# Entry
Amino acid sequence: MEATLLSSKALNVIETVETAIVGKRQTIQSAFAILLTNGHLLIEDIPGVGKTTLAKALAKTIGCDFKRVQFTPDMLPSDITGTSIFNQKAGEFEFRPGPVFANIVLADEINRSTPKTQAALLECMEERQVTVDGITYHLPSPFFVIATQNNIEMSGTYPLPEAQLDRFAARLSIGYPGRSDEMKILENQMHSRPVDSIKPVMSADEVVQLQRAVRDIHIDSSLRQYILEIVTATRSHTAIALGASPRGSLALLYASQALAAVTGRDYVTPDDIKAMAVPVLAHRMIVRPEQRIKGVTAQSILTELLQRTPVPVGVARG
# Structure
């Protein structure tokens, strides 16, 4: 698929989602780019800024099957994956699929469920399959998990373990809208919600085609080396107890390719890598406790590493 056609389709998606999420084009662009990497997305922000609306709008725009799961402390793994029920008429057990059998799954307030329930998503997110009673069931394609959590209200929550966090290709936040954007939100939603009137602009099959096309975006060997320099630096930084994993390196490579494609190029630039480094790597890093007390964050460390890591020059465009 040509870069211009891919970019045109991406722009159509972004502009459609933007009718529901006003003034957050960069966030929407990054979210769609993560979808094109065939990865998963964690949206972490305060309540009421549009986390759930973004997930719904994206799902409706790309015409995919969408399921929403409200995570609660009493939820069981079978409430997500499904369970086997005895059919008295047939005289045998039959599998009843759970809500995870959808193209886009919204795991709302994922940190409110127990670690056992959270772990039910591990196989789904990595292997794209569910195993129940020794039988494996494959999930549909595309398969995209969007999980949300707020970072303010921590009472009654269970922090996501590192193994779970590492399976999210990126973590994004939405933030407050600007004053003029919020006024537009008030005007647009006086009588109805724009997200309810969104019509699909592409199909699930087209999404799969875009995901395959993204992998053909050229990334020069010097830029692959640049990615490794950034990731390796997270592992040796004195303020970091745990750096980014090799899965993080791959996620950054794929996200850079997707961002380049979404913005209309068939090659990756250093700016693509810089733009996706914090969303892709920050949630995979653990800052030492003594540094957290001083206000040091993974985001600030990555910003520092990006500033001091030499940027390749004369990058080939393929």
In short: The chain is about 45% helix and 15% strand. The chain has a mean pLDDT of 90. The first helix runs from residue 3 to 17.
